[in-house]
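Example A, followed by Example B.
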Amino acid sequence: MTEYGGLRPSSVNKFTKQEKDRILAACPGIIAESRPDNAPHIDLIWGSYFSMNYGWAGDAERRFASSSGGVLTALGCHLLETKKVSLILHVGPDPDMPMRSRWVMSRTPEEVQRNAGSRYGPVAPLAGLENALQHEKPFAIIAKPCDLGAVHCLSKVDDRVDRFCVARLTLVCGGQSRLGTSIELLNEFGILESELTLFRYRGFGNPGRIRMETRDGRAFETTYAEFWKEESRWDFETRCKFCPDALGEASDIAAADVWPGANPTEEDAGFNGVICRTQAGKDLLDEAVVGDDLILGASITPRQFDFFQPHQVYKKHALLARFRGLAQAKMPMIKTIGLRLDKLAEALDAHRLQEEKSATIQRARAGRFGEPLPS
């Protein structure tokens, strides 16, 4: 963990050449690629898909406790209950430092539920991928879109990935926050991180209240809207500002928030937008619905998703101009395959394209995208 509140790899100079080659072939800071699966539909913004629906967990308690509709939790539990997988590689709160996240391998539905929930802060689920692969048994992964992009690219140089990682589930991602966002909130309430026994970001309602509990029995709460209302809190990783696939195009299934305009105005029972991208995802959804572990509601169109996720649409259109700004500032770019950035940029007029490019150049030259290398 750096002083800026981000996770970084350590001992990078100790990798062998073979290890470096494998990392460079899959690192989402270098390459991002869609994972088409002969889906019947394709949208310029949202990519290829089999279906788009509202969805929520069939179990009412699971739905209530999860961060929105509980779709990813319900699918993880279903896979274990039906013995389709031996474990779920995902993330959960660190029991000793509950404001922070760590990778976990859940082997029972109860473990999946205990580790459920949105985690606003840095986490590296793929730090556990080799452990999961070494079991040589079917497993599923629930992770960020960039993580699943890395899994897809890794599958080209490691045949174990496609043999054993049989379900790849993700969220539509607004960006990974640095830890400082949560530390600021603790400071506002006068709480030390070492005092925490609980830090719940969402859930127990949709979106639910952010709740903190301490070892001496105190409890503090704030709302989702209060937490995010100040843009100064939005301290995302630089990679996220240039993410070419926050929509999970390398997943089997992606789950999204479906608040109008991306802002919840009240608590509700909990819903997700469910994007099924592959045949494997379709089979999983069908089986989970038949088993009453998941409920699918009305269809959603891509243009409705635009309304639910307008910030994603804005970024998609702007990305090519931002990449050109990085190139002019002599900074590395992400190679993209199958993500349609050229076509997306055509939707913008020349003035806005130039604005995006110029702003990127200015930020790069001001040092906004850099940080000291980890020791």
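Example B, a separate protein, is given below in the same form.
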Amino acid sequence: MTVPCVRVQPEAGEQTRQALADQGLLDDAYDITVADGWLYVPVADPDEVPEDYEVVTFDAPRRETQTLPRDILGFEPHVERLGDIAILDEDDHDRAVRIAEAVMASDLPVTTVVNRASKVQGDHRVREWDVLAGEDTETVHTEYGVDLLVDIRDVYFSPRLATERHRVVEQVAADEHVFDMFAGVGPFVVPMAKRGATCVGCDLNPAAIRYLRENARRNGVADRVTALEGDVREVAVGGGPDGTDYTGWADRVVMNLPHSADAFLDTAVRLAGAECVIHLYDIQSEEDPFGPGEHALQAAADDAYAVDIETRRIVRSYAPHEVNICLDARLTQT
């Protein structure tokens, strides 16, 4: 049967398979196949595949070894995987319950099924969830060899950004000082520390800080990770509650708080050393996705730094006519 597949060279197959699996994009109903010198990896939702990959149609053989939810339902439900939790986004409760029952009856390695019950909300950026099957909302998510313990009731986490996080992590050198201003459970901080960087992660959510410390410990990098709880504008510069002042400390700053990060740019500039790369994430209109962020960076840097935008990247669609973007900006002290 002809299905959407990511087409890559065979030597890139395992890395590609893992990256797609981390985002819940693999279509387990079909076999990964080598043909004509290419590897074809079936994907469930081609629209969510990062633009770095080539998506084609290919006559992939159906797997006979698994019973999947669609085999039970007669249609393909949209199911996102986070560790052993299956996440639904259904408006119809009865339909959500039916899908949850099919997921649990299938061969998917899932112990809990939840349905989104609210948008991300509040200062701690968490959702409400309807637990439809199972009960444990804590799970271990593996991303590019890093194990991240997370409880979706208490913290925000999106597996869909795995490829983007890996892109940034790959830029980090072993001797860098990295400051993540909105660190969550550590999906940037922990793999950066595994590359040998000295990292500080800050978050307003105390649960996120607890998980950040645990994830640093379980990945063997607790000695290179400092976790700060509170508003980064209050605890990171000028001497926070513990007296530490990170003014001028950072070689790299991560600002993954779309919609609000520009309000923290003055602090990011204070954190920056003589030369520093800032990864600024934003949500903007598709008509001018990068302009507002670039202007905000220039304004915050003022005359203290020259700003060079090294990368302008659309990460994913966010809403109709809106996109989630990243600017990689190098600041050099003048």
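On Example B: The two ends are 60 Å apart (CA to CA).
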